[in-house]
Amino acid sequence: MEVSVLNINGQETGRKVTLNEAIFGIEPNDHVLYLDVKQYLANQRQGTAKSKERSELSGSTRKLGRQKGGGGARRGDINSPLLVGGARVFGPKPRDYRFKLNKKVKNLARRSALSYKAQENAIVIVEDFTLDAPKTKDFVNIAKNLKVEGKKSLLVLPEANKNVYLSARNLQQADVMTASTLNTYKVLNADVLVVTENSLKVIDNILIK
After folding, report:
1. Residues 43-58, buried b or exposed e (16+ Cβ, 10 A)?
2. Which HAMAP family does the record cross-reference, listed alphabetically (predicted)?
3. Which residues of the chain have pLDDT under 50?
4. 60/45 Cα distance (integer angstroms)
5. Fewer Cβ atoms within 10 A, N terminus or C terminus of the chain?
6. What contacts 76, CB < 8 A, 6 or more positions away?
7. Which pLDDT score, from 0 to 100, does residue 104 have?
């Protein structure tokens, strides 16, 4: 699949790049996409939710009512889960939600996500660029020129660029990341991928071994 290379003014440079079929042209595997996105979201969880069980509450242990004959459920002290303000039965406890995925599964998931974007013609290739200073207005102009303004866009850079990152930080629908940290969730969450030329080489080196 050939894609024209644009400059930051949105004009064609006359060059074309060929997207690697082993990355952008495979049959997507929906199950591994699900697993990788699930793992990403699980890793974001703090796992600090906690509620008190009856042994952790302070309160009298006196039995409030008769064991039988009250017409309701049996209950003991004021910390009973049956009462308002009582403890919670089997409530959440701090835990680690992370789980392991094999490298080959994660690799296939990223290639599947990129293949979906290629099928949707949602990949824009732009020549490598940088910004002289952090300026949101300059980044917005680039998005307008590339016709991705108003869409959720993910800009993929070959290496970290502080000025570009800071220029996009205040834009709700724009995200910037390096090719080496590209993940399935970010790719699927974006409406369009804006990939620089050198980023394609980094992606090839990482996903094709």
Report:
1. eeeeeeeeeeebeeee
2. Ribosomal_uL4_B
3. none
4. 36
5. C
6. 61, 63, 64
7. 95
